[in-house]
Amino acid sequence: MTIAVNPEILVWAREAAGFSLDEAAAKLTLSSSAKSTAADKLAALESGEKAPTRNQLNDMANVYRRPLLTFYMAGPPRKAGRGHDFRQSPDARTRRENAMLDTLLRDVLVRQQMVRELLEDEEEAMPLPFVGSIAMRQGVAHAVDALSTLLGFNTLAPRKGSPEALFKRLREAAEGVGIFVLVLGDLGSYHHTIPASVFRGFAIADPVAPFVVINSKDARAARVFTLVHELVHILLGQTGVSGTVSTATPTTEDARIERFCNDVAGEFLLPQNAYRHDVAAFGVNDLEAARLAVEQIATRWSVSEPMVAYRLNREGDLSAGVYEALRAEFYTRWLATLKRERDRSSSGPHPRVVKQFSLGDALVSLVHRTLRGNTLSHTKAASLLGAQPNAVEPMLRHFESNRGTFVSGAN
Predict the structure, then answer these.
(1) N or C terminus: fewer CB in 10 A for the chain?
(2) Are 290 and 282 in contact (CB under 8 A)?
(3) Mean pLDDT, residues 229-248
(4) Which domains does the chain have, with CATH numbers?
């Protein structure tokens, strides 16, 4: 049975998913024949020469990751914005990777709106005064003070433990003041992984239900810096997506905002008047001595080595050449770590532990409380949790027995 649809929808859905005609035809398992190739058959559907069958529309909905109802709309919808695109690194990202990012952000925005509506239904939708409470003209020191006061965090206090432990502490503090912090880096499976080169973090500066998303595919030690960076975006009232740090001189307003957030995160995590204390001096071009100093500072302050190197470079203590050499070393080490983790992935934490870590205690707790209070249906709970409806109860029972217990670096 063929279905009458606007063929422009088919073209839009494919292109928005980042597929070429040939790639989509292969994904849709269209078969070639003596008369026409698989791509020709898809082109015929997209031109309106032929109408798709219901099975073909179902396949497109699955491959393009769109609800089936999308294909019955009168025309393509307006593209949902990412907010500001603060990514400053050279755009080596593929069209497919950017399309997966758009899909993830679209999903997060839907969840965020559901959370806001849920808070409004519970009469808990109070505007949070810290969202949009600072401006860049007030300077880095003012932003650091505002963030440390908000989180109840003494930036100068001695730190113990790993960067993962510091991330957990800061995440709990952020969630405690009303910010939902998620750790996500794929579209539900490893087949749709979004690497850290595509995005590092994302902030939704909503005054009632602010969200921060950290890319789970980035190095665990790097998540601390990204979290603080995105929290600065929340305080600035700026919604948008961020990428890897850049040492290039900012030439646009978005680039200046991104540099400001990096500088605030750097000062927050490595206070200028303290983090170099008892560290042996080294020359700006002394790679060996710099490597040892970076390792010592990172260990003492529970942050990542790349973050320390970036901070030293920004302050003029590392030459561009030494900084790039160190960054290349850290990147190679990170790739080796990823390979080891993939090799032993079958022995990792239970999927429910990973899921709870990814969603954060604040979101899971809200779903648990409102579902048990009969405010939320299992269907909507599944949407908020990114799970099948029959998986909601097992997840919430696990939450009840392990409330607030996250495995460090579970994802």
Answers:
(1) N
(2) yes
(3) 93
(4) 7-72 (1.10.260), 91-269 (no CATH), 273-347 (no CATH), 349-401 (no CATH)
316-346 residues labelled b (16+ CB within 10 A) or e (exposed): ebbbeebbebbbebbeeebeeeeeeeeeeee
C-alpha closest to that of 56 among 108, 97, 92, 3: 3
Decide: helix, strand or coil at residue 362. helix
Query: Smallest Cα–Cα separation from 391: which of 381, 376, 406?
Result: 381
- What spatial distance separates the first Cα and last Cα of the chain, rounded to whole Å? 44
The two tokens of residue 276 are 């170099």
Give me the torsion for CA of 67, 68, 71, 74, rounded to 10°: -80
Do 10 and 77 contact (CB within 8 A), yes or no?
A: no
By CB atoms closer than 10 A (0-12, 13-18, 19+), residue 287 is: middle
CB 174, CB 224: distance < 8 Å: no
Confidence label for 82 from pLDDT (cuts 50, 70 and 90): low
Best CA proximity match to 195, nearest among 222, 168, 231 = 222
Q: How confident is the model at residue 81 (pLDDT cuts 50, 70, 90)?
A: low
The per-residue DSSP string of 168-204 comes to HHHHHHHHHTT-EEEE--BSSSGGGB--TTT-SEEEE
Q: Residues 295-315: pLDDT tens digits?
A: 999 999 999 999 999 999 999
5: its two tokens: 């649809």
In angstroms, rounded to a whole number, what is the distance separating the alpha carbons of residues 155 and 140?
14
Residue 310: which residues within 8 A CB-CB, separation 6 or more? 245, 247, 262, 266, 323
d(CA 86, CA 263): 14
pLDDT band of residue 66 (cuts 50, 70, 90) is confident
| pLDDT (mean) for 113-117 | 93
